[in-house]
């Protein structure tokens, strides 16, 4: 069975790419503002918050890149392959991010309780 090609007009692909670019720029501004606000308010959880923000930013960049790849998919099989790769990488990244945050929390807890017992 031959997989039908996705007939998406070039104008629609261009519009989708521009929309992705605009959304990415808006998120970039948000992450810059959030990062600046965290550095201006130091506290016990600041490093963990910075780390969580960094992971979120990485995830959003991956999502925008994923959307760009999908815009250029030429058939359903390619779109499914792109989606499968994205989900696999996000699952792997989520596990790594959780390990890193857990390690940071354990370290901060250990530092906070040092000398109290």
Topology:
Elements: H1 10-40, H2 46-71, H3 76-113
Helix pairs in contact: 1-2, 2-3
Structure report:
Helix 1 (10-40) packs antiparallel against helix 2 and helix 2 (46-71) packs antiparallel against helix 3. The chain has helices at residues 10-40, 46-71, 76-113. The radius of gyration is 20 Å and the shape is elongated. It has one domain (8-113). It is mainly alpha-helical and 117 residues long. Helices cover 81% and strands 0% of the residues.
Write a concise synopsis of the structure shown.
With 117 residues, the protein is mainly α.
Number of strands: 0
Radius of gyration in whole Å, from Cα? 20 Å
Order of helices and strands: HHH
Share in helix:
over 70%
Main sheet record: none
The N- and C-terminal alpha carbons lie at a distance of: 70 Å
Number of domains: 1
Write down the overall mean pLDDT: 88
Global shape: elongated
Structural class: mainly alpha
InterPro entries: Phasin (IPR018968), Phasin_subfam-2 (IPR010234)
Domain Phasin: 21-114
Protein name: Phasin
């Amino acid at each position: 069975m031959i997989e039908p090609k996705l007939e998406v007009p070039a104008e629609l692909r261009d519009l989708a790419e521009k929309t992705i670019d605009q959304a990415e720029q808006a998120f970039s501004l948000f992450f810059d503002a959030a990062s600046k606000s965290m550095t201006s308010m130091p506290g016990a959880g600041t490093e963990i918050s910075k780390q969580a923000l960094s992971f979120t930013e990485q995830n959003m960049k991956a999502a925008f890149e994923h959307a760009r790849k999908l815009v250029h998919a030429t058939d359903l099989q390619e779109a499914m392959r792109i989606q499968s790769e994205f989900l696999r990488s996000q699952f792997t990244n989520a596990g790594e991010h959780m390990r890193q945050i857990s390690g940071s929390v354990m370290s901060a807890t250990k530092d906070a309780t040092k000398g109290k017992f």
